[in-house]
């Protein structure tokens, strides 16, 4: 066996991120409570995976846990598998995780106004990533940072490099955040509601920029949002989260045309129409369960118009397949015909 | 930044003028005939006349002020009534000693406060944090002269590690200087250390919860960088405010500590001058002390400008 084999051709859909059975507990006043419960998914190279769900459903916690960014002493993160390319994240020390964040996983957050450090220039905050991970000199990092600012559409990047965050508008700051995330050409970018805080026109520009960059670099993107309109716009596939669990997963067209879970049907029904101003989804009657007080059976049953006796008992239902790429966590799915949007 | 510096420097000019009024005005505050008061209760008529003559108290106040200010500008603060030494010489002897003492005290207090505050903020709620919190409450509550005496008892009389009193100039023998200055500086700095620890711990805890710290960690920066760069630059802003207040307190405290440890600083000069009613020396000491405070506050403002880009003019 001394012969060297030619490198195996990459499979057509290389998995960049694989998550299996992620469970996250957080410390609350009443003790430990599970806020993410058995989340599993994979993301392929070049794919955009959307995660939707009401506030508090565990979208951010899922992503922060994958990136190792939950506060260690108030959280417990467990998973059967957490894998980015060949890196097994469950086996890495905090220091080794520092090497993953940046070049492998990068993040963009919701709050562009507070996510940049007010005490340092914008340029410094981009350049320091390059210096940290690619060992660039001050000068080389500066040049790359200016090129990045230019790429993400910040005008006169030479001058802007030396300015502070307070001299930038919200949209421009979010472009800077994107430049930071993009700096080391990560395999996976997690964007946690990157446009929620921006007004509609700026939002459209930022989405377009993200789409372009993804095409250019072939990154995987996880896109968290409240806004189903945005999901339809940018995502290939979507996970629907409710009360810490994935309740449905499907390719975008299938999900919108034939939702497999009553919760998703409710979200679609609550979606603002073309002729109405965009808003947040809120009009499913009732409230999601509080952390640490999950209902028995299906967690959605107290709000579900199709709920029956069997939905209320003995453990939450399993996630089952509706088709090759479509899953749902509903006991009644074979008998229900749920309404989507054309 | 340069423009900021120049602007700030300009605004100190009126303050300086005011300072000269205050220092000089001391003579006007003396009730009755200043010459009689200064010469003392047992003075003869000739002695009182001599004092009046020496101080020029018989001339109009404006002329006296002008003479004093122009003299001060050229480094002449008059001569002591008691020792006949030039006031500038006495101050020149005492000031460097007091500055060294206050500077070392500040350094020691920061060397204690910064690591303690960082550890205690990062390990919030652990025994280490509790020890630091109790320690800083004690440090603030205990009077410094008492601490000084305790230190002397332990480190000089008990263990014999350090001299109890006296002072050696740094240019004479650096090792001996250090040995002599450690206890007084520690005594002087401990209250400030405690206060800075408490302030800094609180602001670090606040900054750690900011979104931009999460961003810094999301970039994969090492913990050392996240804390040392991103946390500390923001958390230092309130610390600088506290330090600005402490510097003035430090100068006042130095008077006391110099007495306890027999350090020949400006405090000693001041106390001698007050007990002997040596007016020119008192005026000189007040002028210099206020000048030092003004310069320190200028430095504090510059530190603000560095730490917080928003306050810089553009
Ligand atoms: N550090 C933490 N300590 C305690 N509880 C937390 C912590 N972080 C999140 N939680 C709780 O975990 C639950 C899930 O929160 P998460 O932020 O993931 O929701 P989300 O789906 O991102 O909501 P949103 O749409 O509002 O961003 C919430 O109930 C939240 O209160
Ligand atoms: Mg969130």
From TrEMBL, chain A:
InterPro entries: AAA+_ATPase, ABC_Ni/Peptide_Import, ABC_transporter-like_ATP-bd, ABC_transporter-like_CS, Oligopep_ABC_C, P-loop_NTPase. Transmembrane segments: none annotated. The keyword Nucleotide-binding applies. It comes from the Bacteria. Residues 17-268 form the ABC transporter domain. Pfam families: ABC_tran, oligo_HPY. It is a peripheral membrane protein. Keywords: ATP-binding, Cell membrane, Membrane, Nucleotide-binding, Transport. It is found in: Cell membrane. One of its GO terms (molecular function) is ATP binding. Belongs to the ABC transporter superfamily. This is ABC transporter ATP-binding protein. The lineage of its organism: Bacteria, Bacillati, Actinomycetota, Actinomycetes, Pseudonocardiales.
From TrEMBL, chain B:
Gene3D superfamilies: MetI-like. Keywords: Cell membrane, Membrane, Transmembrane, Transmembrane helix, Transport. Signal peptide: none annotated. The keyword Heme does not apply. PROSITE patterns: ABC_TM1 (PS50928). It is a multi-pass membrane protein. Pfam families: BPD_transp_1, BPD_transp_1_N. The chain crosses the membrane at residues 9-30, 99-122, 134-162, 174-194, 239-261, 281-307. CDD domains: TM_PBP2. It is found in: Cell membrane. Residues 95-300 form the ABC transmembrane type-1 domain. It comes from the Bacteria. Belongs to the binding-protein-dependent transport system permease family. This is ABC transporter permease. It comes from Pseudonocardia humida.
């Amino acid at each position: 066996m001394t012969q060297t084999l030619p490198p195996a051709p990459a499979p057509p859909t290389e998995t960049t991120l694989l998550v299996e059975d992620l469970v996250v507990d957080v410390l609350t006043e009443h003790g430990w409570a599970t806020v993410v419960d058995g989340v599993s998914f994979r993301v392929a190279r070049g794919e955009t995976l959307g995660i939707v769900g009401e506030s508090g459903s565990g979208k951010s916690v899922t992503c922060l846990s994958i990136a190792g960014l939950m506060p260690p002493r108030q959280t417990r993160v467990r998973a059967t598998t957490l894998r980015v390319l060949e890196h097994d994240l469950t086996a890495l020390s905090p220091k080794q995780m520092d090497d993953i964040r940046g070049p492998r996983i990068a993040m963009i957050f919701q709050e562009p106004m507070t996510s940049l450090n007010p005490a340092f220039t914008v340029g410094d905050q981009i350049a320091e990533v390059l210096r940290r991970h690619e060992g660039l000199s001050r000068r080389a990092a500066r040049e790359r940072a200016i090129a990045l600012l230019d790429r993400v559409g910040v005008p006169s990047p030479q001058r802007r490099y030396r300015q502070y965050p307070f001299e930038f508008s919200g949209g421009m700051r979010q472009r800077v955040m994107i430049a930071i995330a993009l700096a080391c050409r990560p395999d996976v970018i997690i964007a946690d509601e990157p446009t929620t805080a921006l007004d509609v026109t700026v939002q459209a520009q930022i989405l377009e920029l993200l789409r372009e960059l993804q095409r250019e670099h072939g990154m995987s993107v996880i896109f968290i949002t409240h806004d189903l309109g945005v999901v339809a716009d940018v995502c290939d596939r979507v996970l629907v989260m409710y009360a810490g669990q994935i309740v449905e997963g499907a390719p975008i067209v299938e999900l919108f045309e034939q939702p497999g879970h009553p919760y998703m049907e409710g979200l679609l029904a609550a979606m603002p129409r073309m002729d109405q101003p965009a808003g947040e989804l809120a009009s499913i009657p009732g409230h999601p369960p509080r952390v640490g007080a999950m209902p028995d059976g299906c967690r959605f049953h107290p709000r579900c118009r199709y709920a029956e006796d069997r939905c209320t008992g003995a453990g939450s239902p399993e996630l089952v397949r509706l088709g090759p790429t479509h899953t749902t966590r509903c006991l009644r799915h074979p008998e229900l015909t749920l309404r989507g949007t054309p | 930044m340069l423009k900021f510096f120049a602007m700030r420097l300009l605004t100190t000019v009126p303050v300086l003028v005011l300072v000269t009024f205050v220092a000089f005005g001391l003579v006007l505050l003396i009730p009755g005939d200043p010459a009689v008061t200064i010469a003392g209760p047992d003075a003869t008529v000739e002695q009182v006349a001599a004092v009046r003559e020496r101080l020029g108290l018989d001339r109009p106040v404006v002329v006296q002020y002008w003479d004093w200010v122009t003299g001060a500008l050229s480094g002449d603060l008059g001569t002591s009534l008691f020792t006949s030494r030039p006031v500038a010489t006495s101050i020149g002897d005492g000031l460097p000693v007091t500055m060294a003492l206050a500077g070392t005290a500040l350094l020691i207090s920061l060397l204690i406060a910064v690591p303690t505050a960082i550890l205690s903020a990062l390990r919030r709620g652990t025994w280490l944090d509790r020890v630091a919190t109790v320690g800083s409450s004690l440090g603030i509550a205990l009077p410094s002269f008492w601490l000084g005496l305790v230190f002397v008892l332990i480190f000089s009389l008990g263990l014999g590690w350090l001299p109890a009193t006296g002072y050696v100039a740094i240019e004479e023998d650096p090792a001996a200087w250090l040995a002599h200055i450690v206890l007084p500086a520690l005594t002087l700095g401990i209250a400030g250390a405690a206060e800075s620890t408490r302030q800094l711990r609180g602001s670090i805890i606040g900054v750690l919860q900011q979104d931009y710290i999460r961003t810094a960690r999301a970039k994969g920066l090492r913990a050392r960088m996240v804390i040392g760069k991103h946390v500390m630059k923001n958390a230092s802003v309130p610390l600088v405010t506290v330090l600005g207040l402490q510097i003035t307190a430090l100068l006042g405290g130095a008077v006391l500590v110099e007495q306890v440890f027999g350090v020949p600083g400006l405090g000693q000069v001041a106390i001698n001058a007050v007990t002997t009613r040596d007016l020119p020396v008192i005026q000189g000491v007040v002028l210099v002390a206020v000048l030092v405070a003004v310069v320190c506050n200028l430095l504090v403002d510059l530190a603000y400008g560095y730490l917080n880009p928003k306050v810089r003019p553009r």
